[in-house]
Amino acid sequence: MMLPLADLLLSPDDMAAVDKEAAASSIDSYGLMEKAGQAVAASALRYFPGALRFVVLCGPGNNGGDGYVAARALRLAGAMVLLFHLGDPQRLKGDAARAFADRPIEGEAIASYAPRRGDVVVDAIFGAGLSRRVPDEVVAVIARIDEADIPVIAVDLPSGLDGASGQILGAAFRATRTVTFMTRKPGHLLLPGRDLCGELEVFDIGIPARIVRAHADGLIGENTPAQWQTRIPSAGADTHKYKRGHLVVFSGGPNATGAARMSAMAGLKAGAGLVTIASPLEAMSVNAGLLTAIMLHAVEDEASLRVWLTDQRLSTFILGPGFGAGEKARQFCLALADRHLVLDADGITSFRDDPQQLFDAFAAGPTRLVLTPHEGEFARLFPDIAADTALSKVGKARAAAARAHAAIIYKGADSVIAAPDGRALINANAPPWLATAGSGDVLAGIVGGLMAQGAPAFEAAAAGVWLHGLAGQHAGKGLTAEDLVASVKPL
């Protein structure tokens, strides 16, 4: 499925290559800058009609050129406009120099701007191409504007944000609105960038789609149904419970059974035909008294598990929620190396001393393993990748997926789902109130339920994260894990 341009994610480097190819194709690059600046001005006038002054802050590159065009358009519309620049604008080159030459008013050094009530700031200092810490004079301006609580319209990306990672490079504007062009960047979706962009507008300035798509590798995008829906099995008229797969969730001891039941119910609601909790003998009575639609099977040790595994209909397993970390978890996991496995929580931690043992067990054949680490668990399995400050969250998830031959759900408010082949999706539909006890158990259950039905590991992981966010939206603020399970809906 071909996604609309606005749904693609291009890195700042890829977008720079798009701009370069557009110019090489005899497209009027200044005309593109003119459209970008006009779009910013239109947004400013549409959303801030009561502004007393539009204060345009222009940087030393093409982002600043967009700002000079916006300043001219705002002035021609009759607005009061003030212009401030970073560095010596006489040193501008190319289209930015032309935009500066056409500026409507003289500007001042950016350090001289004193915010006033009624101002609306247009931030055209750096945009998405910044890769170094912002200079001190910009840090000071950001602080003054933030203290004055003045609305900010960011051009492309709030200055101070890394467009590839969404990380703050020393200091960054908190924009009320961000106007970007042709496509979004990863920094628009990854945190904290997403929170600092405010409302995001993607404006088509006329670069041909063929050029944009040529530089979009198709491997990175936002996690939406368009990315995976065709790979998720749908129920037909002849569907019965055995066709929809058998999911098994391992339970912990008698005092740690709730997490497994939460995962099991989520898997059932996500569409698995049958769900069984594999329980140690000492927890059988606890689980039996609290299960209805979920079946129960005694599995005490590795030997009893291997006997049970002679039943090939048991295709998908969840290990980790409430299970306990240690040798038993490792034994069970390795016994499941030829099956589909969602490894969560204690299951992940159990391999902290020898993660390669886990990776080797699932290295051959199609991807069968889904790992669901949060920040700390990720660092236990992939300490060197977690410590690599040159990698964004997307880069870390992709590197981990390739190493582990697994689909990775690098959890958080901006969860990243990655596949061994380099595909990665950034999730943006999760409400903040999902951060509650048991939420991860529900996520593991949804993913397992989708895999049991035959969804490939990466697509099951991505769809599971999205459905988890949707359930959180439906359950609402103050949800508990029980509320979340009740709100899970199949595709």
TrEMBL record:
It catalyses: (6S)-NADPHX + ADP = AMP + phosphate + NADPH + H(+); (6R)-NADHX = (6S)-NADHX; (6S)-NADHX + ADP = AMP + phosphate + NADH + H(+); (6R)-NADPHX = (6S)-NADPHX. Keywords: ATP-binding, Isomerase, Kinase, Lyase, Metal-binding, Multifunctional enzyme, NAD, NADP, Nucleotide-binding, Potassium, Transferase. GO terms for molecular function: ADP-dependent NAD(P)H-hydrate dehydratase activity; ATP binding; kinase activity; metal ion binding; NAD(P)HX epimerase activity. Binds 1 potassium ion per subunit. (6S)-NADPHX binds at residues 62-66, 127-133, 156, 259, 322, 374, 441. Its cofactor is Mg(2+); K(+). Residues 224-491 form the YjeF C-terminal domain. K(+) binds at N63, D123, S159. InterPro entries: Carbohydrate_kinase_pred_CS, CARKD, Nnr, Ribokinase-like, YjeF_N_dom, YjeF_N_dom_sf. Residues 15-213 form the YjeF N-terminal domain. Homotetramer. In the C-terminal section; belongs to the NnrD/CARKD family. This is Bifunctional NAD(P)H-hydrate repair enzyme. The lineage of its organism: Bacteria, Pseudomonadati, Pseudomonadota, Alphaproteobacteria, Hyphomicrobiales. The gene is nnrD.
